[in-house]
Amino acid sequence: MIAYSAIVRMAVFQFFITFANKQITSMKIGIIVAMDKEFEQLKKVFQNDQDIILQQCGIGKVNSAVGTTMMIADHHPDLIISTGCAGGADTRLNVGDVVVANACVYHDAYCGENCNYGQILGMPARYMAPKDLVDKAIHMQVEGIQVREGLTVSGEWFVDSREKMQEIMTHFPETTAVDMESCSIAQACYIFKTPFISFRIISDVPLKDNKAQMYFDFWDKLAEGSFEVTRHFIEQIKQQTNNKNE
Fold it and tell me: Which residue has the higher pLDDT, 241 or 199?
């Protein structure tokens, strides 16, 4: 039986052979979301941009890791962005604010005393985002929207109660946002050497909420247009890339 590590090395080798033969004329950005509602919003924003690859991967860690691997294999993006909505852990956040992850970690992984809580054995304790992209995001000026840098934690749990959020924060008190996909996307990107950043719109703040009412209100009243901030972020990244190429 071929060891898992050997399979990963073979996949990475094949990826780089293909990537080395590709002539890059502009920055290609892959955007991954989990849900139908998020995908419909993004299509409205990016439907005419030939340099953007949109993908709806499905909810959770396995779906998002598979989707990321397929995107890298099929399109070889220069950057992958995990976007969509997330729960806010910091009570200073409001619905519609944005959290850009400087790092991602699993809130529901435990591999024993030889690893940090949230770390998968053989993988980094946390998946760090490129500092230049984080800095670009937090200095972005979008009227009426706060952009915050912080830790995003991911796991197989829709956090709809204060008790669950408090449980997560016992392990990660510095948590800023919680979702179900960003860390698994980050792990796949780490394996295949693809730059990654998580850029999430806050749909609810469980520590200020009751039974996810903020979340349902977000989709009923506030979601339309909220992903425009993702467009602003990508425009700045592409402008920075164009300036470097001139």
Answer: 199
Beta-carbon count within 10 A of 79 CB: 20
Is 236 in a helix, a strand, or coil?
Answer: helix
Please give the Cα distance from 198 to 68 (Å, whole number).
13
Q: How many angstroms separate the first and last alpha carbons of the chain?
A: 50
Residues contacting 102, CB < 8 A, separation 6+: 128, 129, 131, 134, 149, 150, 151
Q: Which of 36, 38, 49, 235 is catalytic?
A: 38
Selected catalytic residue, list 90, 179, 204, 209: 204
Q: Which residues pair with 100 in a beta bridge?
A: 149, 199
Longest dimension (CA), the chain: 56
Residues in the chain: 246
Known catalytic membership, residue 49: no
Q: Are 238 and 51 in contact (CB under 8 A)?
A: yes
Residue 38 known to be catalytic: yes
**């993702």: which residue's tokens?**
230
Distance CA 18, CA 35 (A): 30
Range name among 29-33, 196-200, 219-223 with the lowest pLDDT average: 219-223
Q: What 3-state class would DSSP assign to 137?
A: helix
